[in-house]
Amino acid sequence: METIRVSANGLDFEVDQAGSGEKFALLLHGFPESKYSWRAQLPVFAERGYTAWAPNLRGYGLTTRPQGRSNYTLDHLADDVAGLIDAARARGITGPVTLVAHDWGGAIAWAFALRGLRPLEKFIILNMPHPVLFFQGLRRFAQLRRSWYMFFFQIPWLPEFALSRDGAAAIGQIFVGHARNKGNFPPDVLAEYQRNALRPGALTGMLNYYRANIRLPRPGGTRMPPVPKLTVPTLMIWGEADAALGKELTVGTEALVPGITIRYLPGVSHWVQQDAPQTVNAMIAAFLDGRPVPEAADLVHTGEADAPPPR
After folding, report:
1. Cα dihedral angle (236, 239, 240, 245), rounded to 10 degrees?
2. What are phi and psi of 261, to 5 degrees?
3. 103 an active-site residue?
């Protein structure tokens, strides 16, 4: 694995790269993560003949940090994905594309895939519902209560102050406070995310994802326009113990993504690929190989699942 610089869509991206195959995998992280969140998954792709890129998204790490919330709308973010794929093509990585995404990376990936900005061979989405179902969920009290932080993030400067205090201690707590396998989030892992959040201007860039795209739906207000069905072969992996996004947001996904494979991980948190990396990797590997994707319980029986957390 190495860290490279990639110019795409007018920005300079900091990218972790693994593998050197013709097939291309692009892995998009969430908030308040970074490319580091895919450290356990990149080798899975490299072993299967992919060149895999995990970029720090705009505003994160040492990737370009545009000023102003208008530079963080989903249109810009989806164009970044198209630009990164084009940059891979320019480097001779010409094979089919698999898009992998979690949390905010997932929101970007849904927008990109549904708009058909570039062809995809496969799509893997972790703990981020289809936008239609997320929009509907925000009209229900249970999900609004879980999503309180999104509206707190709309306030100027106060969220930056709260998240940066005491060496960005709150950033570390966001992870370890909800993780199932807390041992997967030792001090050195938390320090990586805290260090990134404390870079000058980083928290504002990270929060601009919420400020540019999230608005509280009004009863009787503007409705979401019709969204095409997604026909790309898709795998959804969902940690059921997600404190931010309820499992009920996945109900109805099959009607919007015909043929989707959904696998639930009982007791696993929102940070699914870091909380249960062995389980997630086994599911991803099967999907990439064209094998039936095992259920979490099957992986427990075969010894391929993560060990249960200490009581």
Report:
1. -80
2. -105, 125
3. yes
Q: Please give the Cα distance from 28 to 38 (Å, whole number).
A: 8
Q: What is the pLDDT of residues 260-293, one digit of tens each?
A: 999 999 999 999 999 999 999 999 999 999 999 9
Rg over alpha carbons for the chain, rounded to the nearest Å, is 18
Q: Helix, strand or coil for residue 64? A: coil
Active site residue 188: no
Cβ contact 104:213 at 8 Å? no
Q: Give bridge partners of residue 265 from the DSSP assignment.
A: 239
Selecting among 210, 242, 275, 306, the annotated active-site residue is: 210
- Answer whether 28's CB lies under 8 Å from 42's CB: no
**Do 137 and 249 contact (CB within 8 A), yes or no?**
yes
- The pTM assigned to this predicted structure is 0.95
E strands, the chain, in order: 2-8, 11-18, 23-28, 50-55, 97-102, 122-126, 234-239, 261-265
What is the mean pLDDT of the segment spanning 199-206?
98
Q: Indicate if 29 belongs to the active site.
A: no
Concatenated DSSP letters of 92-159: T--S-EEEEEETHHHHHHHHHHHHTSS--SEEEEES---HHHHHHHTTSHHHHHHTHHHHHTTSSSHH
- Do 117 and 81 form a contact (C-beta atoms < 8 A)? yes
At residue 221, φ and ψ (nearest 5 deg) are -80, -165
Report in angstroms the alpha-carbon separations of 5 from 66, 67, 266.
17, 20, 38
Strands 23-28 and 50-55: parallel
Give the C-alpha separation, 78 to 294, whole Å.
31
Three-state DSSP at 220 gives coil
Q: What's the residue count for the chain?
A: 311
